[in-house]
Amino acid sequence: MKAAPRAKGAAAIDIHAHYFPEVYLRAIETQGERSGITLDRSDPAGPAIKIGNMLGGHLRREFYDLDARLKEMNRAGVDVHALSLTFPMVYWADVELGTRLARAVNDAMSEAHRARPDRFVGLATLPMQDPRRSVDELDRAARLPGIRGVYLGTNVNGRELDDPAFLPVWERIDALELPVFLHPLNVIGAQRLGPYYLANLLGNPYDTGVAAARLIFGGILDRFPKVSVCLPHAGGTLPYLIGRLDRGQKVRRELKHMKRRPSAYLRRFTYDTISHAPAPLRYLIDLVGADRVMIGSDYCFDLGYERPVQVVTSLPRLTRTDQAKILGGNAAKLLELN
Question: For position 136, which CATH number holds?
């Protein structure tokens, strides 16, 4: 299907765009080995992060070179990247190193914004292995130029996001009114998802769904009414299993503490567009509203979108008004870019 014309004046803001600052890569290279993580720079294809016996893909230059990234953004018609760290975050490190590394990454995000305030904003990384230090770093990072949100894994070394230990972090996020963006990490069922790249293909959306359900059923969204959470990969499993969650709340004693149906929380979340098919993306927009969906690319992984804008402009039955919201209007409001 031919793409529709792009909505006039609609800046494209990609809220799912990863960035590995050089200071982060150097820290893995020089200090990661004691934690079982190393960086291999021997291949001309690019550096690769290795965790135990698992070698990640090679990092293209655009992952850590912002000048190279800008050229690709221009080709793709993307105006702004909300920069975020991704797997393996900083949770692999001990508390001291994790804290220093989170500070260095957040400083690098802010530096990218200061260099190109029209093209980059940053999402803060926290040393969540120590909630107290996370609160301290959140307070510091929130004052840095260009930091417009918080980036969290869907779990922290296996600890769920509704763990009582994390309540001080959620309380501070709520007070600061910073949006939270999640990304799958240490996915559930990994022991069965080793072959065929299933840990990503299936594990990532599964883990997003688990994290969303824990935030709902664990009372985080009720306790902290100003918290806004963005779910990656078009919401993972949450939008597509929401009827099953509603049924469970109705009939299961384990959920009798719930005063509202899970579906009542759908609009407490926002969602990116990474569905990889028009039908589920169209369903998501119909379910939660065009004002809750924003473009994402998973930049610059091979499983992401090379042309995230076209995913929106080619979607059937999308009005120009809704197109403009998804392309950038919603993100501009959430990230306070206006």
Answer: 3.20.20.140
Threshold 0.90, pTM exceeds = yes
Written in H, E and C, the secondary structure of the chain is: CCCCCCCCCCCCEEEEEECCCHHHHHHHHHHCHHHCEEEECCCCCCCEEEECCEEEEECCHHHCCHHHHHHHHHHHCCCEEEEECCCCCCCCCCHHHHHHHHHHHHHHHHHHHHHCCCCEEEEEECCCCCHHHHHHHHHHHCCCCCEEEEEEECEECCEECCCHHHHHHHHHHHHHCCCEEEECCCCCCHHHCCHHHHHHHCHHHHHHHHHHHHHHHCCHHHHCCCCCEEECHHHCCHHHCHHHHHHHHHHCHHHCCCCCCHHHHHHHEEEECCCCCHHHHHHHHHHHCHHHEECCCCECCCCCCCCHHHHHHCCCCCCHHHHHHHHHHHHHHHCCCC
Sequential pLDDT tens for the chain (338 residues): 455 566 666 799 999 999 999 999 999 999 998 888 999 888 888 888 888 756 567 788 899 999 999 999 999 999 999 999 998 899 999 999 999 999 999 999 999 999 999 999 999 999 999 999 999 999 999 999 999 999 999 999 999 999 999 999 999 999 999 999 999 999 999 889 989 999 999 999 999 999 999 999 999 999 999 999 999 999 999 999 999 999 999 999 999 999 999 999 999 999 999 999 999 999 999 999 999 999 999 998 889 999 999 999 999 999 999 999 999 999 999 999 97
284 inside domain:
yes
Q: How many domains does the chain have?
A: 1
Quick check: is 201 in a domain? Answer: yes
Q: Which domain holds residue 76?
A: 13-21+65-334
